[in-house]
Amino acid sequence: MYPYIQNTKEDIKRMLETIGIDSVDHLFSDIPEDIRFDRELDLKPSMSEMEVRKYLTDMSKKNLTINDLTCFLGAGAYDHYIPSVVKHITSRSEFYTSYTPYQPEVSQGTLQYIFEYQTLICKLTGMEVANASLYDGGTAIAEAAIMATNITRKDQLVISKTVNPQYREVLKTYAHLQNLEVIEVDEAEGVTNLDELKKNVTDKTAAVIVQSPNFFGIVEDLKAIEEIAHSQKKTLFVTCVDPISLGILKSPGSLGADIVVGEGQSLGISLQFGGPYLGFIAVNKAHMRRLPGRLVGETVDANGKRAFVLTLQAREQHIRREKATSNICSNQGINTLAAAVYLVTLGKQGLREVAARSTQMAHYAYSEMIKSGKFKPLFNKPFFKEFAVTSDIDADTVNKKLLDEKILGGYALEKDYPQYKNGILYAVTEKRTKEEIDKLISVLEGIE
Amino acid sequence: MKVLKDLYYTKDHEWLKVEGDEAYIGLTDFAQDSLGDIVYVELPEVDDEFSKEDAFAAVESVKAASDVFMPVDGKIVEVNEALLDEPGLINEDPYENWIAKIEIADKSQLDELLSADEYEKLLDEEV
Amino acid sequence: MRKYDKLIFELSKPGRRAFKLPESSIEEKNLEELIPAEFLSDEELDLPELSEVDIIRHYINLSNKNYGVDTGFYPLGSCTMKYNPKINEDMAGLDGFQNIHPFQSEDTVQGALQLMYELDKALCEISGMDKMTLQPAAGAHGELTGLALIKAYHEHRGDTKRTKIIVPDSAHGTNPASAMMAGFQTIEIKSTEEGLVDIESLKAALDDEVAGLMLTNPNTLGLFERHIVEIAKLVHDAGGLLYYDGANANAILGKVRPGDMGFDVVHFNLHKTFSTPHGGGGPGSGPVGVKKILMDYLPTPTVEKDGDRYYLNYNIPHSVGRMKDFYGHFSILVRAYSYILAMGKDGLKTVSEMAVLNANYLAHKLKDYYNLPEGTIYKHEFVMAGLKGALSDVTTLDVAKRLLDYGYHPPTIYFPLIVNEALMTEPTESESIETLDEFAEVMIKIAEEAKENPELLKEAPHNTPIGRPDEARAARNPVLRYEG
Predict the structure, then answer these.
(1) Total structural domains within chain A
(2) Is the residue at A418 inside a domain?
(3) Per the domain annotation, does A291 fall within a domain?
């Protein structure tokens, strides 16, 4: 007996009789005998729900969570507060047990929330068209880069080393497959080195790719970078952005970005050990037909009533096959719903407040941390909710001491930036309090 | 399906109307009918040069997409920009609403194209 | 309720709030003192203002306009719309799995790494492969990963002229699209009359420029590729590798393994075969398994075990690199493992047996009314070539839309491309004989309606939240965001 299989012995007998065969095995007789699997799978026998629950709950308890620890870790995944409504809405099984909305008449729920999500991303980024989402921040950069090479018919990508190192790794993987050249531009003082950037942007450049706030949490001078990017007639300006930061920072759209991408995990999606998260991409209308992935559009039904459908599908793999704009088929479905619910719940005032509070708390932590001189700022640049410091103590020692005091310390920069030995990147969200930050500082100050 | 007499045709269902060294290219009635409601036409740029059988444009319907191929070598001299706003014009009158006007590179290639009669025969076979 | 027609933006009213921050615990400064004014936005955010009540009602109303597996029968071919067990959701929601940061030190996430390690082993056993990467985010992403591995394998051997991937004409659209993304050229080969790979076409396509063959087995017609051993030998002899598109793996669990069929690289769709929810389009998860010859090329990191300790291995000599951020769609992996534990070695085999039995039973009930070849054994799905008999102009689309009136989600329509008027039907093992009987009755009734009252079908659906939408209008004048 299995709870998710309904056929009884009697049912099976009746079905076999109807088909006119004597055994279920007959239905597998077309598999050549020499490759049939003739032993039992080497797996555990089936478990009851009680056993599954115990087995996995025990396993989960071997992990320490952000409810056990006070989280100052970010580097691309953030501990922002998730309002209760998000979980309640995404748990509606009419939403999460449905498939891609290929039958619009019975999928208006999914189609409308995607349409609303697309609208919200446009409003945040200051762009005209957003798709129904991509896998994550890294693949969104890769897709944007490939899109840029297709639009410009150039095959060189210039990316700043202040872009999240993982995103750059993903880009390099994708670029290698398509024989595209990736040029990484050095940073200076924690921001993109504009002189180096200038040298590398030529008439071969398909796109200039930067992140702001960048991996170090620093706000890049997008206006200056935009000018360099657009000094070449066809080159596209791609910016990667933390959507929470747009509660207070100027939108990339208002600063001349051609493609805006980013990681949307901050928008109501749990940390869940790295995924699933939410990649977003937005462009202006001129490039909408080059977008990868799904798009939902508004139309009317046979009675003239407002309705939503998947549209511009001729770009996609199921129609264009090897000539599609991308091979992507799924979107992040239920996570786009989470992001939409998060954004409308915070609303006009709330998103600004969360962004501002994160900045305030991060700056408080920063100024307290550098007070005694034991920890020094790695850079002296304006930052949003993350900042980097360094000291004479190696990052592992620091983080172990913090863990002993139930604090999840920052990200060790050395593995991606060997020049910043002992550098640690701290993230501070609106969830952190003065008390928690003061404790962090006091533990740090106590480390020998 | 309508097939006009004085045009050249390809097996990919394009027509070619020659005027001196230049020619208009469009889709046949059969092509527009099989595609259904055309929703978008991707046009080439003026001065783009293509060889025979290169895809120089694309037409999209709701659930299909199809490349449009060059019947002969040539250079684009004009594109029908009206199609950008009203792609459905091709459905309304495929022979009136051309896609691009080209300068023919080598007129001897015209001999390799189908006549109206040959094209009609091809359609009979396909149906 | 189904008549609800508001957009969230239309509910906004100045002054409404659904979110409140606690009082600040520090003395806050002017933002301009922290970040230069030139970087700060001087405009108000253009987001709606709503109360929590508004928000909940809006989305609950939207959910009422949706159809999911929990609503009813969803026989969407190649999508394996099986039941999504509720324990899976609870397990993914455990604090210990849901609230862990991907960059925590390994000693604080041993449970998460253990789960990934055990899932890796289980999927290897089920597929007959040697090692998995759990990183790919979806089936198509698995395909891209697998093709990247094939590319790296040839490149590493200096065999750089292998630039082509062979794909049968019955393949999922993602196969050629993934080949394009991986920088390959696609060679499409024909199927036989019966719908299997045409061996002669394959032979003709094989040469020293072929990097590999992508194949689904059973294929999209629900047929097992009986000549798979010969196909594998031909491809291997020509120096190519074999890629298994696991979209249809629900038919073969515990019955036959891709590894034993001769495949070198495999992806599974956890959201199909292993019961994780489709989520209205995602997130999915597409783990990729490889034979030993490809292990050195896997994306970094993989999950390994040393004594009692689990760790992330970044030391893979010829890795293709990173395919996505972090380690994969972890909480989808939790759901899939929960399912594998619940079904166990005995249950997984039963899954495939019942999925195949259900498909054959339903096909048998419909074969007098819809075009199906005689005497075929199907695997988990079957493809009908539209209504039987010469009928007016009633199409498969009309049949699908009429099914909506009867409360069913229609099968996949117009795919695979090689079948005219295709209705690709996959009942899955989740369904009961009663559901299959009722569905068959409705399908037969629709076949009768098509003869007696075709207009009923042409104008369907009649009682869904909306009627047929004007898709041409949507595509001609795209409205992709609310501008009211």
Answers:
(1) 3
(2) yes
(3) yes
CA A255-A268-A75 angle, 5° bins: 65
- Domains, chain B: 8-105 (2.40.50.100)
Answer yes or no: do A314 and B65 touch at CB < 8 A: yes
- From chain A residues 68-97, the ones with a CB under 8 A of any chain C CB are 69, 71, 73, 75-77, 79, 83, 85, 88-89, 91-97
- Determine the distance in angstroms separating the CA of A200 from the nearest CA of chain C, rounded to an integer: 24
A150 to chain C, any CB pair closer than 8 A? The answer is no
A257's tokens: 């970005």
Q: Give me the interface pTM, i.e. the ipTM.
A: 0.98
Residue in C7, C49, C174 closest to A348 by CB: C49
Tens of pLDDT, residues B56-94: 999 998 878 889 999 999 999 999 999 998 999 999 999
Q: Do B60 and A323 touch (CB under 8 A)?
A: no
Q: A3 in a domain, yes or no?
A: no
Q: Which domain holds residue A392?
A: 70-80+346-446
The DSSP bridge partners found for residue A207 are A157, A236
Please give the model's pTM, rounded to 2 decimal places: 0.96
Residue C394 sits at φ, ψ, to 5 deg, of -75, 125
Subunit contact A178:C183, Cβ cutoff 8 A: yes
Among partner residues B40, B42, B63, which is closest to A319 by beta-carbon distance?
B63
Q: Do both A185 and A293 map to the same domain? A: yes
CA-CA-CA-CA torsion sign (C38, C43, C46, C48): positive
| pLDDT 10s digits, A3-18 | 999 999 999 999 999 9
On whether both A316 and A383 belong to a single domain, the answer is: no
Amino acid occupying residue A54: K
Q: Is A27 on the interface with C (CB under 8 A)?
A: yes
Domain co-membership, A98 together with A197:
yes
C-beta of residue A237 within 8 angstroms of C-beta of residue A261: no
* Residue listed under structure tokens 């001189």: A373
Degrees (nearest 5) of the Cα angle A419, A423, A425? 125
* Phi, psi dihedral angles at B8 (to 5 degrees): -95, 155
Shared domain for A25 and A128, answered yes or no, is no
Question: Residue A372 domain-assigned?
Answer: yes
